[in-house]
Structure formats: structure tokens, C-alpha cells
Amino acid sequence: MCGRYRFYDHSNPDIAKLIDKARETLPPMTFQELSLEEVFPGSLILVRLFQGKDGFSVCRWGFPFKGKLIINARSETWKDTPLFRGTHPCIIPASGYYEWSSGHRKYSFTDRDTIFMAGLMKKIDGEWRAVILTEDASPKHAEIHGRQPVRIAKEQFDAWLRSGILMPDRHDLNIAEEENA
């Protein structure tokens, strides 16, 4: 998965509700720093935690490591990777995500509903940080990029958040080339 996703696209009522709740509960300075549309590595993001039905928190996207920002973790190997020791499962809601083809064309992957991406978070240098888990792309998506975010179905939230057991939601998304890549 490449390094950007779309949190809110102004047509997603579930994420609009989450934004309203965040506006009501977060300190104004924190809310202003949230990345609410196209999200870039290092941005402050909303994540879902095991804190009841609507629990959420904020964290920064990416783990600093040797002068780089690690934004993704391979679902096949994260448990064996030292950087991801001590992490906690989280869910990262989105309206879609972006991939770039080898020809540097930007593609948008979307669905009618909110996309829930499996994530890992941990506190690093006093700040909560998160990465997105990835998996091999479905055949339709692999024509553009070899990896995609691991999606979690709503029915699997508790299993993932409580124990880190992945039960991905593997249906294909809509793909559209973006105008101004």
C-alpha cells in the first residue's frame, strides 16, 4: 500500500458522525491538527480502539525508525518483527485509499461504505503511533499495486481489537484513476 488514504470524502455519513464526535470530545487544538481528508504519513489520525462501541483515539500515522517513517506492516510477518513488539491492535477508518501504478498514475480505491483497515499502535517517545497492516493484493488490485490494506469487517472488530486475530474482509473495491496525480 502506498503512503496515502482518504479519511473523509463528504459522502460518507459514518465518518461524518465520527468527525462530529471528535469535534465535541477532543481539545480544539488536537481536533484542528487531525487530517480529515487526504491523509499523509506523519499526520494525526483517528483510530478505533476497544473502548466500547464507539471508542476512538488519536495517534500519529507512522513509526519512526532509523530516520524513516514506517507506515505499513506486513500482516504475514508483523508478529516476528522487533519494531512491532508491544503494539496493540487498532482499526483505522477510511473512505478509501490511494495506490500509484508503476507508470506513476494515482488510483483511488473506494467502496460504498466505510473501509476499516487493520492497524497496530504503540506509544513511541510519549506519543501514540499507528501503522496499517497490508496483505497481498487481490487479483483485480494487483494489476496496479502488489499490496493492499487488510480490511476488517464490522463483525470482526472485537476479535481483532481483543486478540489481534485477523479475519480480513476480502471483497474488491471500486478503482478509479485520479485526475491530478
Question: Could you characterize what this model shows?
Answer:
This protein is of the alpha+beta class and 181 residues long. It has a single domain, classed as Alpha-Beta Complex (hypothetical protein yedk fold), CATH 3.90.1680. Strands 1, 2, 3, 4, 7, 8, 9, 10, 11 and 12 form a 10-stranded mixed sheet that branches. Strands 5-6 form a two-stranded antiparallel ribbon. A hairpin with a 5-residue loop joins strand 8 and strand 9. The two termini are 16 Å apart. The model has no long low-confidence stretch (mean pLDDT 85).
What's the topology here?
Layout: E1 5-6, H1 13-25, H2 28-33, E2 38-39, E3 44-48, E4 56-61, E5 63-65, E6 68-70, E7 72-74, E8 88-100, E9 106-124, E10 127-136, H3 139-142, E11 147-149, H4 157-163, E12 174-177
Parallel strand pairs: 4-10, 7-10
Antiparallel strand pairs: 1-2, 1-8, 3-4, 5-6, 8-9, 9-10, 9-12, 10-11
Could you tell me the CATH topology label: hypothetical protein yedk fold
**Helix content class:** 10-25%
Main sheet makeup: 10 strands, mixed
Order of helices and strands: EHHEEEEEEEEEHEHE
Quickly name the level 1 CATH class: Alpha Beta
